[in-house]
Amino acid sequence: MTNQIPAALPTREAAWAVLIEFTQNPSLLKHALAVESCVRAYGEQQAEQLGLAGEDAAALVELYSATALLHDFDYERYPSAEEHPYVGNRILEQRGWPAELRHAIMSHAGYTGTPRVSHLDKVLFACDELAGFLTACALVKPTKSIHDVEVAGVKKKLKDKAFARGVNREDVINGAKELGVDLDRHIAFCLAAMQRDAEALGLAGIPAEQTT
Ligand SMILES: [Fe+2]
Ligand SMILES: [Fe+2]
Fold it and tell me: How far is ligand 2, taken at its centre, from the CA of residue 208, in Å?
């Protein structure tokens, strides 16, 4: 026996196991997957920009994926602002998840006062609300396909306060700003990521004959 906490490898697979241990709600699972899609794509871009290759690149991308999958994993059980994401953070710490992942998760909720410092912190915050918004944009298409969503339409809907009112527009705009990415480019980037993963996100669309 040892007192040392076994360090959990921050892999996508390990994160998914924790997520489904705590979360049954299909919408929350879909949200986690949509955010992951965008965050993972930024992780891939970051690995390339840092000149990482092979295992190092793969490890960075897995960390980004795991962080996104876990950012709301405690929400179903502990939804209040007193608990989420504090309780989740403690559980992850006990289980040996790395500080950089937990810091990003703490910093996605502005009310924790945890500053967003790292690229991962900023990416998670920038993708959280936008991923939900892009999902909403896809679901109002007759085809329910993310492939039919375009940047111009997304921007128009961001200005329409009645559409997807749960999505905080300021967070979307500030998220891109903090990340240092032009809003249009950020939307296009996340849209492309979600289109790539459309099947897994349940947003690949329905056959035309079923749309009427
Ligand atoms: Fe959250
Ligand atoms: Fe979230």
Answer: 31
Beta-bridge partners for 204 = 145
* Tens digits of residue pLDDT in 27-82: 999 999 999 999 999 999 999 999 999 999 999 999 999 999 999 999 999 999 99
Specify the pTM. Answer: 0.94
| Ligand 2 centroid – CA 2 distance (Å) | 35
165, burial (CB in 10 Å: exposed 0-12, middle 13-18, buried 19+): exposed
Tell which residue, 158, 30, 33, 19, has the closest CA to residue 75: 19
Cα of 94 vs centre of ligand 1, distance in Å, is: 20
Q: How far is the CA of 208 from the centre of ligand 1 (A)?
A: 35
* Three-point CA angle 152, 71, 32, nearest 5°: 55
Counting ligands in written order, the one closest to the CA of 76 is 1
Residues 187 and 155: beta-carbon distance below 8 Å: yes
Give Cα separations from 42 to 60, 95, 192 (angstroms): 10, 26, 11
Per-residue DSSP letter, 7: P
User: Could you say which ligand is closest to the alpha carbon of residue 110?
Assistant: 1
Cα(179)–Cα(182) distance, integer angstroms = 9
- The contacts of residue 40 (CB under 8 Å, 6+ apart) are 61, 64, 65, 68, 193
Can you give the length of the chain in residues? 212
Residue 49 Cα to ligand 2 middle (Å): 26
Query: What residues are neighbours of ligand 1 (ion), with CB under 5 Å?
Result: 72
